[in-house]
Amino acid sequence: MTVNELTLVPQDVLNLDGLLSPEELLLRGTVRDFVNERIRPNIATWYEDAHFPLELVPELGKLGVLGMHLKGYGCPGRSAVEYGLAAMELEAGDSGLRTFISVQGSLAMSAIHKWGSEEQKNEHLPAMARGEKIGCFGLTEPTAGSDPSSMATFAEPDGDGGWVINGAKRWIGLASVAQIAIIWANTQEGVRGFIVPTDTPGFVATPIGSKLSMRASIQCDIRLDTVRLPATALLPGARGLSGPFACLNEARYGIIWGAMGAARDSYETALEYSKERLQFGKPLAGYQLTQEKLVNMLLEIQKGTLLALHTGRLKDAGALEPVHVSVGKLNNVREAIDICREARTILGGNGITLDYSPLRHANNLESVRTYEGTDEVHTLILGQHITGISAFRQG
Question: Residue 93 domain-assigned?
Fold first, then answer.
């Protein structure tokens, strides 16, 4: 590809695709085709109707994106970069669909894969990878969002080797359609994780309505009222908050890529619109102010994609640290929201309709910006790394 040809590729002026292997490009193309065929034609209706397309779950299993980066137990076993590329393409369709594969694979499946017994892994992971069983991840509580150490959900021994859990969780993706829930609870020995079948008496999941964001997705309140579990429900390898935090870092990694998918789709939508929309006798794209907006968007997308790719290479090399994930999550989501909002301005009044994607993406990203660590939390993580001084609560 020549330099002149490179300038004709509006979303990849630096030829970042040249850093990807043929296998990675093929995987990305396969997921992009799925998004174009199954998500784009329907997403505006799903978003408006607040509908999550459950019929896509087994299709996503066949596509190989559920538990994509996990190895063994029927999981696809793909690389971190391949998982990231899939997340980017899915979020270019809608954050709600990318969130589904994150909750299923990076949270629920990852918890079992990292911390479960062999029996638990063999029982749940193959079906989850095929999309035949849905899982959710119950960590956040009504009064414990950014501070999970203050969780009030409590599990205590029942005297017969089992457990009894009481408590509540909030903003739990997929809980009302899941077959199993990974529930994190305080015990006398610290935080532990449990696999809870959602048909267990006392487990109630209620979808949260009236959302202005993530409308093509499901988030729920969970109530746990004397939920009785056998000893085999306990995840034996997870002790303390390091258990759920390890899963959260898997999900945060996918967000680094996914946010750039939403940004890229918004940029491309604004670019095409600006070339076709005539104002004062010429296309919007012919005005200096519009070109400045497009250039600034492109610069941040290219930088954010390069950051995501570098993070993925570190992960595949086993060199990824939590602080790296905080850099990516904080930067890429923050920049993606700005890009989506700026893209909307190019669309004018038409940009507030569901005929165009940027404002839908921007609204979704408000949720992405909040979950898996807010801007403030990741800022303080990085601040502690830079200064050596923790600004979090002491003691």
Answer: yes
